Structure formats: C-alpha cells, structure tokens
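STRUCTURE:
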C-alpha cells in the first residue's frame, strides 16, 4: 500500500541551476548593467544562435513575445488566418489574436503527436480553393519531439506559406541532425521556469534573416525611431530581455547538453520500469530525430490497464506528486470556440484521443532516484491489468 503520510513535493519540471549563473549575474551587478540590454544579452544571443546554427537571435521577455514578433514581421493582421498546431499550450496561438487574425487549428498525428502533414495539406488545399491562404503556419514541437518537418516544409513551400517553428519545449532536440527551431522562417524558444533551461522568464527568436531580426529588436524596444529625442512612428512592444536574466541564460546554456541527457535518462528509466505494464504507451520518438524528452509523456489504454487516467492522477496528487494531463487541444478551448479545425482523419481526431488518454510524469533533470522510485511505485501500486508486479529496485 502507498502511505498516506504527507511527503515532500515532486514537481513536474522544476528549474535546475548549474552554479555558473551567479558569475554572470554578479558581472551584471558589478557593471550596473541590469537594463534590457547589455553584454549578457549580446552574448546570450550570439551563443544561442551558434548553438542552434542560426544566423542570429533576439532575446526577449518570453516565448510568447517571440511568436508575436514573428507574426508582426510577417505582417499578419486583421482578416488574415494563421494555421497552428492544436495540441499545444495556449501561448502558441494567443499572439494570433493579438494581431487581430484568426487561428485555424491542425490536428496531430500518432507518430510524433505533432502537426499532421495530412491534415495540414487538406487545410492548405481548402484555403487555396477559398482564395484565403494563411499568412503563416505555427508548428509546435510538443514535449521536445520534432514534428515531421520534411512533409510540413514541403506542403508550406508548395503554397509559399512561411513557417514559425515553435520550439519552446524542444531546445536541444534535433530533426535529421538539424537543431529544432531552425527549419522554418523563424524559430522560437522559451526559457520559462519549467523549461529544459531557464532564465526564470524569457524567450528567443532565431532566424537566418538578419534584417528581419534587426526589425524584431526595433519592435521589441518600443519601436523607438533613430532620433536624439523619443520619437515613434510605429507601434512597438516592451519585449527585450534584461541583462540579469540573460546572465542566467548563459550559465544555463553551458549545461544544456547535460540537461538533455538527464531528461532522456529519466525517460529511459520510466520506460524500463513501467513500459511493460498493460495499457502504458510512451510518446514515440520519430526515426532520425532526437527528442530532448522535456517531459516524459505517455498514454493509458484504460481497457488494458483497468484504471483510468483520472485514477492515476488522483493517486499521484494524493502522494504529493505533480503529474498532469497532456495539453487540452486548442480547438476544444472555450477561447477558440467556432474556429476551424482540420483533423488527421475526417472522422477521427488524434489530438482529442491524446488529451483523453495522455499523462505527463515528473521529468526534471534534477529528479533523484528516490523520487523516481516514489513515482514508479505509485503507478505499480495500481496493479495495472490486475497483474502482480515487482517494486522498483
């Protein structure tokens, strides 16, 4: 039996500092560079761009801000449509509304849980017939796994629609040896407190179009004209990252590869310990790709397992373990009621099924073996499939 005694909290994806962050923060304090510009910002942009192989990068206040800037650079506005993955966090689509445009949601497919090329092709064909092609396609790399970018890029190129690759969750992942976030016109990363590396809050916009990135910097700094006085001819935003937070990012970037390996190791341990249990199916990793396994995600076939997703989540909550369902698809969100949605198959929605059956387990790169044991034993205590199972050793 699992004990009812209150235990320490196991978080889903807590920050994991390396220790080197303090050096860069101290430099910012000693030089009095704490504004949203400075040496750490410049270096963080350069180092991140070099890491992913992009021509340039712009450090901003959040991944959401980076998506918003990308849409602004593509001149998305009122009356336009933007296609977006449905199985994702709301931040992927909110900037579409900021611009007064209309999102059209695209279903996932089973091999990656990401945007379905088949649904995307159908949506593009339909939009072409209506004379209303989207101004952009936002492709999300869910839980650190790249989408089927060859097919998606091919479809978008056919209709000359630019791609914004939302790699907020997939920094450190790759698609056919190409770093995640660099296969579209723009790439977006998030450094929120729960991401694989963090600046506490922040994001990055990357591109090979340096002119566009210079425009992004201009827009992100309140669009101040080049003048000795404060003059503004364009609406701008207060989106730049502070020099202090960029210092945290520099320290985090130094250990990114270690963080990726740690998360992949956590995934492997889960797979080894509970992958054989009836009804458990882990999120797949597409051939020729490398997921950063930001979160260990799996589905539960309730008929095979003999327990429901809710029963598992409730038991974990009772054990003070933070586990969550997968993202609720955006086409099911009240905010987007009435928006168009293209499913993987006309009679079957993969996103809906993943939402109903999916669970994300604690996956921090600082997850201890003792914490992993608690989580595994919690799951095993349910006797999935009514089989007697061995406790984690």
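SEQUENCE:
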């Amino acid at each position: 039996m699992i004990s009812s005694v209150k235990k320490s909290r196991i978080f889903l994806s807590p920050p994991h500092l390396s220790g080197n962050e303090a050096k860069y923060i101290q430099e910012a304090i000693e030089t009095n560079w704490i504004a949203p510009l400075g040496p750490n910002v410049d270096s963080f942009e350069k180092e991140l761009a070099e890491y992913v192989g992009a021509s340039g990068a712009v450090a901003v206040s959040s991944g959401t801000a980076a998506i918003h800037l990308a849409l602004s650079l593509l001149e998305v506005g009122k009356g336009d449509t933007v296609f977006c993955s449905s199985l994702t966090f709301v931040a992927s689509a909110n900037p579409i509304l900021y611009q007064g445009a209309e999102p059209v949601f695209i279903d996932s497919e089973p091999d990656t849980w990401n945007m379905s090329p088949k649904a995307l092709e159908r949506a593009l064909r339909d939009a072409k017939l209506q004379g209303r092609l989207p101004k952009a396609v936002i492709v999300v790399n869910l839980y650190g796994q790249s989408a089927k970018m060859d097919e998606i890029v091919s479809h978008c190129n056919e209709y000359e629609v630019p791609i914004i690759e939302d790699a907020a969750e997939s920094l450190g992942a790759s698609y056919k040896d190409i770093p995640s976030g660099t296969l579209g016109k723009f790439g977006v990363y998030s450094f929120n407190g729960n991401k694989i590396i963090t600046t506490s809050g922040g994001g990055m916009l990357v591109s090979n179009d340096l002119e566009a990135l210079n425009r992004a910097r201009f827009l992100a700094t309140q669009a101040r004209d080049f003048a000795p006085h404060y003059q503004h001819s364009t609406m701008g935003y207060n989106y730049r990252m502070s020099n202090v937070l960029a210092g945290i990012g520099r320290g985090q970037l130094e250990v990114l590869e270690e963080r990726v390996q740690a998360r992949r190791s956590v995934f492997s341990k889960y797979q080894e310990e509970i992958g054989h249990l009836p009804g458990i199916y882990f999120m797949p990793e597409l051939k020729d790709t490398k997921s950063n396994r930001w979160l260990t995600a799996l589905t539960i076939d309730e008929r095979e397992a003999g327990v429901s997703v809710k029963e598992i989540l409730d038991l974990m909550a009772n054990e003070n373990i933070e586990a969550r369902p997968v993202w609720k698809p955006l086409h099911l969100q009240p905010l987007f009621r009435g928006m168009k949605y293209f499913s993987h198959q006309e009679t079957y929605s993969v996103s809906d099924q993943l939402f109903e059956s999916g669970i994300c387990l604690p996956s921090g790169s600082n997850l201890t073996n003792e914490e992993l044991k608690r989580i595994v034993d919690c799951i095993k205590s349910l006797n999935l499939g009514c089989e007697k199972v061995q406790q984690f050793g």
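REMARK: Residues 140 and 166 are 5 Å apart (CA to CA).
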